[in-house]
Amino acid sequence: MVEPKDIKEIKTIIDLMKKNDLSVFEIEKEGFRLKLQRGPSAQAAPVAPSPVAGQSKTAATTAEAAAAVPKTIESVQLKEIVSPMVGTFYRAGSPDAPPFVDVGKTVTEETVVCIIEAMKVMNEIKAETSGVIAEVVAENGKPVQFGQVLFKVR
Amino acid sequence: MFEKVLVANRGEIALRVIRACKELGIRTLAIYSEADVDSLHVQLADESICIGAPPSTESYLKIDRIMSAAEIGDVDAIHPGYGFLAENPHFAEVCESCNIKFIGPSSQAMQAMGDKNAARGAARKAGVPVTPGSDGIVETEGDAIKIARKIGYPVMIKAAAGGGGRGMRMAHNEPSLQSAFHSARHEAEKAFGNDQVYLEKLIVNPHHVEFQIVADSHGHIIHLGDRDCSIQRRNQKMIEECPSPLMTPGLRKKMGHAAVKLAKSVGYENAGTIEFLVDKDRHFYFMEMNTRIQVEHTITEEVYGCDLVKEQIRIAAGEPLSEHVAHATPRLHAIECRINAEDPARDFQPTPGRIDFYYAPGGRGVRIDSHVYTGYTVPPYYDSLIAKIITVGATRINAIERMRRALDEYYITGIKTTVPFHAAIMRNGEFRSGNYDTGFIERVMSSGKLDLRSRPIRLHE
């Protein structure tokens, strides 16, 4: 239940976002999670990767790249695990198996986070970063393209 | 007919293929690198999949990723365009084994003509004249000297695995042959992973005349006349015209017959081009075959009244040659100028960057094949071709005057282009006379007499 005092707080955050030209604001505390995003949603999968040459592969949308500039108040910087290939994304090794990772799971660089199947070959994809899975972005059983965001890691 | 086609290319040819598919009611899937996410063909395709980072080796040459995209997209066929994987027999083979139709010849035909030395052998067998040279690979320096003494200098040492103007060395006498032979082999090994070379007599300042071949899967093979591509700089074509100014009905008959005979002998299917060198006495010699659609297919389309890309798709889908193609006759004269993102005043240095304003000419008899637009950024990773402008006229001089008129309207700012260069060539006496050869561009550039100032029209500030 969102209380009136919360709405006032949210309005303040929105104003601050506008003033500082922020696109995304996310906060998580005590079982409460809020994400505010300005403008049209940039999160529909598959996401077209940023075309700007030289930009890091882990920034998939320009909106999030803008939000990653740390002049913000209480915005959380998330790392991204992106697809290194073209194929179909699977969360587990087989249909009956449990998913490799879930939100809250701690990963290291070597942790296998998913499978991407290409031409009948199951490729195990490693996290190549360390942290805690914050979001599962790609959809199980759906195609993914090169550079597409699979997971967000805190 | 196919339901969905994957376009394994980029730029203007990807757009060309997508246009043909749309007109045939076929759904399209574009694959693209991160540098081409804003590309026009990607936006116009029904679906698109990003397959890699900007460098070609990381994207457009990645067979596994392209096939993966083809699988995801559930396509029936792949059109390879030109360049990239278009003449890669392994890619054609992979498509065949995945039961996806490769829009082009079979991998065997591609292999037979792709090895430039083997292609000469096939030509000889088919009774097609070839430039005097070695009858195969030249193994030793001693052999090279013997052959050169027989055919006479100057000679060209060519890589068997080369092509498209690459992997060639010239030698004017015996001492230079000795060093050129070894450096050519070394270069070939590095560039193509194959150090095999053969020798060919160098015909000084020849004309480059090529014949368009179209063949269906029912054994019907025809040619659609000639194109003159002698206007080249460093073995890269700049201007092409159809028909060739030095063609006579008798010569066309002889060369066309030879081209069809050769294509038949290797069981060729779909579109291809046979390139000849023609010397001052109108003797013609087979040079090489390109087993793909070519950049300059456009001028043949205008003169013969056909859509070659649509015909490629129809042939690949198993249909016989269209009636209007099988019975096509040449009418009118067409010229194509390749507009590159290069600065002609600075030795054609590439000029990638943002096109601030783009206005293309129009009017009767003007065709523009281009993927660029105002605000488009030309990426630095690929070739510099940004547009092809084609003009058609009742006579050759009409086509030239129309091209001159159209180029003077062509307005591209933000980057330097070769528009002013082409505008100057259209005004050049030697070009206008039709009496030019492959040495023409070299001569005209070193004469320093070309007026490269653009004729600005103020459309936008």
Describe the structure.
The complex is a heterodimer of chains A (154) and B (461). Chain A has two domains: 1-77, no CATH class; 78-154, OB fold (Dihydrolipoamide Acetyltransferase, E2P), CATH 2.40.50.100. In chain A, 14% of the residues lie in helices and 31% in strands. Chain A has helices spanning 4-19, 62-67; strands at 24-29, 32-37, 79-82, 87-90, 106-107, 112-118, 121-126, 131-136, 143-144, 149-153. In chain B, a hairpin with a 5-residue loop joins β15 and β16. The longest helix of chain B is centred in the middle third of the chain and has 19 residues, at 174-192. Chain B contains 16 helices and 22 strands. Chain B is of the alpha+beta class and 461 residues long. Chain A binds chain B through residues 46, 48-51, 53, 57, 85-88, 118-119, 143, 145-148, and chain B through 34-38, 49-54, 59, 64-65, 67-69, 71-72, 98, 379.
Explain briefly what this protein structure is:
The complex is a heterodimer of chains A (154) and B (461). Helices cover 14% and strands 31% of the residues of chain A.
